[in-house]
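We emphasize that the prediction below concerns an isolated chain of 264 residues; any contacts that depend on oligomerization or on bound cofactors are therefore not represented. The input was used exactly as deposited, without trimming of termini.
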Amino acid sequence: MAKQTYRHKHADKIGVQQNTTIKKYPPLHPELQQQFAEGKVLLIDKPLHWTSFDVVRKLRNALQIKKIGHAGTLDPLATGLLIVCTGKFTKKINEYMAREKVYTGHITLGATTPTYDLESTPEHFKPFDAITPQQIKEAAQQFIGSIQQYPPVFSAIKKDGVALYELARRGEAVDLKPRSVSISSFEITGINLPELAFRVRCSTGTYIRSLAHDFGQALHCGAYLSSLRRTHIGDFDVKDASTVNDFIHSLYPATDGSAGGNMG
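Result of the prediction step, given as a token string:
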């Protein structure tokens, strides 16, 4: 399953109406629009099933400005903190992306998926009942520190200008190379087999999907990422973030922020 087709495959889940006119907002107050055009940092709590670009497109339309971008992609099945920069603050995107990140979520044992998460169907089922809490916690310890990690085949990393997920979708062989990442902590915060709750603090460039997959290999039963939420980027906390609709409602109190039921 190709990552870039997610919105089309799951239009019913995310409220996307194909082939419809993009919602037009009334003119934003000039002074307010100028503030965003000059530069602001927005903390957004990305909803489930939206791509990170969906959020940017929605805010660009609502703010009626051109210069806007996000600092660090979240997959469609992930929720949580997305830093959105406007105006001159887009120059700080790389700085924000480089900061350490914290994620919480769930890993499901006993199977793998091609995408390492639930964007594809679980397969290669193996028994997991005999795995003990001690084995689980010991396996997690193996990944703390500076490690070499292979990114998922279905990822946006490019080879010769082509995203790996494009090559994988075509059935072409992908020569993956490991990357150095740093994991400060990997805590198992709950065990309810086959599901494990976790909290990870890691460097930029870390794929939590790969961590889940490798963790399953360490336990010899397979595993995949079944939910993910980003809670921190550096000192930024998702508790201080707004939902997309709440943010837009603050700009246009007379609307519910839904922009006609789509992400335009």
